[in-house]
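Batch manifest, entry 17 of 40.
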Amino acid sequence: METETSPRERIRIASLIGPLLFGATVLALLTSAQHWVVMQLGAEDPTWRTVSHALRKEAPTWYLWVLAAPIVYWAVRRFPLRRGALPVTVPLHVAIALLMVLAHQAANLAVLRLTGFPTQPGAFWTVYASGLLFRLTYGLMGYTVLFGAVLAADYYHQFRERELAAAALGRQLAEARLQALRMQLNPHFLFNAMNTIAMLVRQKSDAQAVRMLAGLSDILRHVLVESPPQETPLKDELAFIERYLEIEQARFADRLRVSVDVAPEALEALVPTLVLQPLVENAIRHGVARRAAGGSLQIEARRQGDDLELLVRDDGPGLAPTKDSVTPASGIPISSGGIGLRNTRSRLTQLYGVRGSLELTSPRDGGAVARVRLPYRVGAGAVELEAVATE
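Output type: structure tokens
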């Protein structure tokens, strides 16, 4: 919830003024027409003078409410009517309404006197107090109309923002899927995977070859799912990574050593779909693959208070010494390259705001660590990978 007048808030308020002016004009004309008809019942001549009199009497009431719109908008945003907070916010809004009506009636009387409209004779505050009860009831009606209009506009803006955010997340997820597909199914990956399978067949390691084919099939099915969810349980994400690493381990043989250390309470935690794959791929490409003797890859997950922490470590050459503190070993800053990593960071921000982050660091003893932090949440899962046939 925003409590300060940001540029976006000012744009919202400005967008309200036009519709409110139109509504005030319509109500001013309607109430002026009603006032004019009452004047005719009192034997007044139907002249332009009586029309002007009715307009001068009724129009200021509604246009002054338009001027009060920013204050009402602030009250709606500052004290939102949400379930659980109503015992506090409703009395606050009633108090604000009474103060606004009292101020509005004083301003209305001042405008009438400044424009020369005939009012009751006497001192300003004496006249103001004399008909206060009647004007208070009438003023509350005007405030209610304004409050309803502002509240509806605020709900509409929030609805549109949620729609735009959902659309942005959908586009980013589509990009992540495409990037994962490109990284996993580029010609080198396909050549290496199929060559390894052919080698296993020549060695009559049929069970292992079938397992690799099934793993490749699962990778395709997971990446090309028609409507993937934004989030999935960590256990499902790990199952996908296991398929990916099985193929990579078959290619690297003993050069790739993998260890997974996941706390039991983290398995059901929700994480963004495909959040680990670009981190694992980055660690293999820029860490393990750069060492002649290969290296190790560690995947860890644990709960840290209200947050979930995911770590992907490698013991490769580490990050390149550049001015950017978060830089892959290739020397390409996340801010300017590395589509998978940049997309992951952007999705974390879109989904979790300041509570979602991706950081790449290089420990003193070498290697690189990708650290993801996001809110710890559990809920309904996503599409689960089918079990891989081993025989």
